[in-house]
Amino acid sequence: MARKKKIEYHSYYEGHLRYMTCMVCGVYENVGESATGVKCSKCVNFSVPLEQSKGYKPTGRPAGWHWRKEFVDKDGTVYHLGKEQPKLKGTLPPTKFSPPKKKKLVSKKSKRRTKEQMLVARHKEKKVALKKAVKKQKDFINHNINKG
Ligand SMILES: [Zn+2]
To answer: What pLDDT, in 10s, does the model give residues 64-94?
Structure first.
């Protein structure tokens, strides 16, 4: 069994500044003393969508679909325990399922939204009240001046 080698990226000092090669494109980046691997700002920005696509690939299939005895994809592809059955493709109606996770998320979001809306409404009320108070004060002052 091959042992995993710890990769050490090339670094050098220029004065008291340490530079290390970007682990993606090899460009030298100014780094701290303890850095063992660095990505330049370009590669950091570039790698974000890449890592996102690596993490979650929406297949449109329910979680654990490949454990089902029989699962028919939207395009009619039939799977038996996650194994494609090309001969059966198009012979069965697509398996219907409802994604429960998404529903929960939506309700959470809408709850949060109503809370925000409440806060906004309260804020508006306060503003109106403040305006009224200011107007009252102005009226009071004007009244006094007119009187005086
Ligand atoms: Zn880079």
So the answer is: 888 889 999 989 999 999 899 999 999 999 9
Residue 95 near residue 77 (C-beta atoms within 8 A): no
What is 7-67 written as a DSSP string? P---EEEETTEEEEEBTTT--EEEE-TT-S-B--HHHHHHHHHHHHHHH----SSPTTGGG
**Residue 91's closest CA among 103, 107, 73?**
73
Ligand 1 centroid distance, CA of 29 (Å): 8
Residues with CB under 5 A from ligand 1 (ion): 22, 24-25, 27, 40, 43
Per-residue pLDDT reduced to its tens digit, 21-31: 998 888 898 99
Tokens read off for 146: 């007119």
- Distance from Cα 42 to the centre of ligand 1, integer Å: 6
pLDDT band per the 50, 70, 90 thresholds, residue 126: confident
Reported pTM:
0.31
